[in-house]
Predict the structure.
Amino acid sequence: MAGNDLPTVSMAASAATALVAEMGAAARAALPALAAASMAQKNVALLAAAAAMRAGAAEILAANERDLVAAHAAGLSPAMLDRLALDAKRLEGIAQGLEQVAALPDPVGAIIGEWTRPNGLHFQRVRVPLGVIAIIYESRPNVTVDAGALCLKSGNAAILRGGSESLNSSTALHACLVQGLAAAGLPVAAVQLVPTRDRAVVGALLAARGVIDVVVPRGGKGLVARVQQEARVPVIGHLDGICHVYVHAAAEPAMAREVVLNAKLRRTGVCGSAETLLMDAAWPAAQRTALLQALLDAGCEVRGDAICQQADARIVAAKPEDFGYEFLAPVMAARVVEGLEEAVRHIREKGSGHTESIITADAAAAERFLALVDSAIVLHNASTQFADGGEFGFGAEIGISTDRFHARGPVGVEQLTSYKYVVRGSGQTRPV
């Protein structure tokens, strides 16, 4: 369909439930073929989809432009617009992500534990797919490809419900995945895109116990909170990306400057963007001032505590709620802490368990920070913007999980599997 003429009419709850049931049945019917598919067959699908994306780049970018025009008219935030936008470089990156996923080992059937009991029974713990996964996301059309590719590689069927603002883009990208599946002789229902903007479908997906096995939300706080509150099926996801950089007393000034500016400003709308800067009181005041001024000069608004405000008149007073807030904008909260223990305490109290970094030349201090901070990702002398599955070598990610069960951190192909026990015997019976 051209323009913005994709379905937008309001849908009754019963119709949404029927649509989800239909898509779920098709997805479940595709699972046996996915389970039987070889790694080579799945890789054919992924590589053919990448080729289709490159061949259809002009059409995809035209579809994205229609989405951007509508998004600007609707007054979407700069962060959302940045997430929505595609260009030739980003599109090539998405295609390369498909190739990277194809290059990964096949997790399905991998033996992750093996032992023999005294009675001769031989046990294996073997990776298996989760089943039918619904991915609900906002704005980012690249998630259409990343999620579809990761689910395919891990033997799962995917039902993709992208944001209404990105439906033209997602539809064009999804068509490439369908071409790849067809080229590999796999059921095209293995990766489906919800064909309507209607929000009633989100509610139907969340209530589809027995139809959907897992829901993965990827988007803003409102979306993720709704999913976590309403879902009747298991959820993998995170609510906030409140990431911290702690500049320790032994931090090298030039490194601290480069890492902090990258962590905050490389892309302010991603969940790995640092939102709070913590600086050790024992780090020289001149160095703290230089770092804060570098942020200001780079166009970042700094909201600081009383000590930080002394560094530059451009620093505004931080409100209590600024610490523990996800700005997703060129805004950063800053405060001075009395040592590593206070930094850790602040992160525990104000953080969301996403990603934290320490900048220091003191190896012992770094190890203590890495051990004490209980977030999904902790880094030493590196930007929080490395909170990305591609940077972890996962090829892509379906999201970042801050859960404490099943998957934590970037969710790639291995994290989209569970396991079963395969037990081989030679006629053993259990004694009465």
